[in-house]
Task: structure prediction
Amino acid sequence: MGHFRRVLLFSLVWLSQPFGLIAQVDDLPIGNIYFSGNETFTEEQLKGLMKLRAVRAFAFRDQPFSRRALRIDALTLEGFYASQGYLESSVTDSFVVNSSGQVDVYLIIIEGRQFMLADIEVTGNRLLSTIDILTFLDLQPGEPFNPVYIRHRLVELRRHYQNQGKLTIDILEEKEADEDVHLRLFISEGLTYTVGDINITGLVQIPEKFVRRELLFKTGDTFRQDDLILSQQRIFESGLFAAVEILPEVRSLESGIADMEIRVRELERRSLDLTLGFQQKEDPGSGEPSTAVATSGQWWHSRIFGSGIRSGITLETDLVLQALTSPNLLVSLEFQSPWTVGIRIPSSVKFFSDYRTTPDRIFTNGVEVALIRRRVERTRFTARFRWALITAEKEVLDSVATTGANRSINFDYLFQGVDNLLAPRKGTIFQINPSLNGIVLKGANDVPYYLKLEADIRRYHPVGREAVFAYRAKLGYLRTLPAGDGRSLPLIDLFDLGGSTSLRGWTRPKRFAAEGGMIKMLGNVEFRFPLIWILGAELFLDMGALKAFETSSTDALDWKFGWDPGAGILITTPLGPIRLDAAWPQGQQKGSSPTYQMAFLHTF
Result:
């Protein structure tokens, strides 16, 4: 009876609204969101699934109401209930305009009965056993019946069959519900197909061999759906084509053979790319990145000498906040190829000239050869050989020389497992960069051989609907080979801490440790949350330690520790967030007044 009264009350309130007012509710602020009939799930759980949000305290601008968004939220809730086994559930939405001119939202839920999965029956399967299929589907009798999850697993099962030649596999799903749900799967495996003719269309100037060398299948192979998808990706990543499509076509007169129709559209031979945005520019030495406004132009020329090689000229300039009057400049000429000495490993050769003014004036000219191995979408492994001639202020290199050579072999491994690179809310980023320096063509007066290692891990966790809890740990390690005098290393290779992406209580690295160090440890913890409109806020704690040289006249190393609590304002822009941070330095060079930092993009 109580549920009936609430439904009747909601209906009468909605019907009492003037039609003209109802027709003009879109874009009005949202007041409250009321639920009725939800017995299994709390209001907070259901609100977490919705796009519409009720008014927040101290908000100058509330989220506008939209009837379309309300309907989508109602369908989302119905889908959620169905995924939990409530197959007979329904969600009715309504709204009223209250006396404050806000829209109150009402959601009437009829949950119905929860259905459980009683049993699973599989027929028609010959290639895979019933036990193998049930294990693959990961379904257990007695659990809530989830049609969404079952549909997803059946798609994966179909692809599993197609990877074993069963191109025309058909799986019919039948459900019978009484007290619980009885699931029956009727499988028609069909023939095992092999690859027939491979036909390529759409080529005008590019030779056919640049398509065929990317294929992971050939005539006579057993058909595999994954090989088809990966081959399509490889052709596209060659940088020669704007569009790629691979379609299997079953021969009508010959059983068990599927021809491959490959359709491509060639990319323009020349292109010009212009970009403008915020970047975190890597330090030319071993410092933390600096945030900058960067603009770049890239002119690309493809199919050099009729091959898959393309060349690009890049002109980039950026303005670092720490030196607003002195922009940095980069000019480079790069050659890229998806194949290296007959092996499908992308490579590049880049000649560059890099002029940096922040934190020190450094002019670097050199060449870099890189091999990039990318096995899956989220990981990348790069091996680089770099030779560079560095000209800088005397105190940047050492106490005497103003010019020095840098020769190194670098290995970079990167895992990007976040949902958004500009403003991540969940996931993990992990990067490790070992390098061996001073190798090859080493001169008598050059620096010793030395090993350099940096590792960085970042984690992001959503809190509620929009807040994020993030933390990072970073480690740097330097060692001369054989173990020797660290003083003989260039000062630009020594680690430092401080700045807007490191310890925010210190404006610049040399404020924390003037000499730099051989070991670096850095930790950052942040809680980011929205405020109003495009404004958000963050609470943070930075912690760092550096095993640094005590004075310029001694080789002794001393640990320097520092930490800073702080808070900041985030301004969301189309180019990324802008940060205004205040941090109170503690420990090393403790200060009573806050340090203020302005930077683009998140700290990490």
